[in-house]
Amino acid sequence: MKVIVDDKIPYIKEAIEKIADQVIFAPGKDFTPALVKNADALIIRTRTHCNRELLEGSKVRFIATATIGFDHIDTQYCQEAGITWTNAPGCNSASVAQYLQSSLLLLELLKGKKLSEMIIGIIGAGNVGSKVAQVAHELGMQVLLNDLPRQDKEESSTFCPLKTLAEKCDILTFHVPLYKEGKYKTFHLADNRFFHSLKRCPIIINTSRGEVIDTQALLNALETGTISDAVIDVWENEPEINTTLLNKVFLGTPHIAGYSADGKANATRMSLDALCRFFHIKTDYQITPPQPEKPVITAKTATEAYLQIYDPQKDSEALKEHPELFEKLRGCYPLRREKEAYSIRLHPLHQKV
Ligand SMILES: NC(=O)c1ccc[n+]([C@@H]2O[C@H](COP(=O)([O-])OP(=O)(O)OC[C@H]3O[C@@H](n4cnc5c(N)ncnc54)[C@H](O)[C@@H]3O)[C@@H](O)[C@H]2O)c1
Ligand SMILES: O=C(O)[C@H](O)[C@H](O)COP(=O)(O)O
Fold first, then answer.
1. Is the distance from the beta carbon of residue 176 to the nearest atom of ligand 1 less than 6 Å?
2. Domain D-isomer specific 2-hydroxyacid dehydrogenase NAD-binding spans what residues (predicted)?
3. Given ligand 1 and candidates 70, 147, 160, 185, which is best to mutate, with the most ligand atoms within 8 Å of its CB?
4. Phi, psi of 299 (to 5 degrees)
5. Does the annotation flag 140 for ligand binding?
6. What's this model's pTM, rounded to 2 decimal places?
């Protein structure tokens, strides 16, 4: 079996070389029809667009994307061509929740927001949205959820219309997939009309896909004071992002909310498991992220401890200083672990949390 693998997928080399007869590693954006022509399977990230142009006439029968998002796969073409694809649901949801938690704590610490008096609206209550709701509850916030597909399926009263969130919330955070069309279309879900429907001058957070928010509408809303601030991890037209927007947001990061080493290891493991299932291969492999350099965190408060574990300001400062290095900042991302990898001691009592 011949497999082409995105060379930015970590912790995969040893395992995939055990599983496949031939493995070629290449940058995700450099997958060409010639490169994939004789491959049986691809293991990709968001930077490889899997469509007719890339795949027609190839031997490819299986694609695993080591991500939850799959808007870079033309699923209709794959179905027509008999190509099976998988994504990695939930792989990085705890990582995005960590990004949200640290960003919310920074809003409290640096912008004087009283989180426990705020209402947060979560648009998209899937793997990430559900974990963000848990984080927000733990911070004492009131949570409103919007999830049209789940509302249709579950007929539950848990969900509110987007209009209600727009009217009632102090923070709105997007966790939907990018759907370019259809009943649940999310492309430019936040457009001028959406921003005009806001009532409480909220803070906007987007870690879903850049195209879920109309950049010009977001800029207008920031400039006219319709919203009070923004935390933006995903951008239209990455990596050529709108730098005027970047300079106006509280935190602007290079699509790294899901980049904890834990999340990446999960994605790698899930992609390999799916590949082995598809080709009926039985092999043992262990995919584990490296230990943190300093696994014991000593801090005065839990907030301080969590920000020692992950502070998104560093990612934001690096991007604001060098927006042209968007892809490089992602490609050379430092080791980031989730809180389970640490032992947290709060002094002076040295209590464990
Ligand atoms: N920035 C990052 O690093 C990063 C990391 C992980 C995920 N993401 C993005 O965030 C998205 C969500 O991730 P997830 O793991 O929670 O995915 P998920 O599939 O588990 O959840 C998505 C939820 O959105 C809901 N939804 C779909 N269309 C909707 C609509 N029109 N209105 C309201 N809700 C809608 C779905 O019903 C589902 O519950 C991914 O698709 C991906 O694009 C980004
Ligand atoms: O969809 C996802 O899982 C995330 O957006 C993920 O972090 C994307 O990572 P990439 O493939 O762009 O490295």
1. yes
2. 110-257
3. 147
4. -150, 165
5. no
6. 0.97
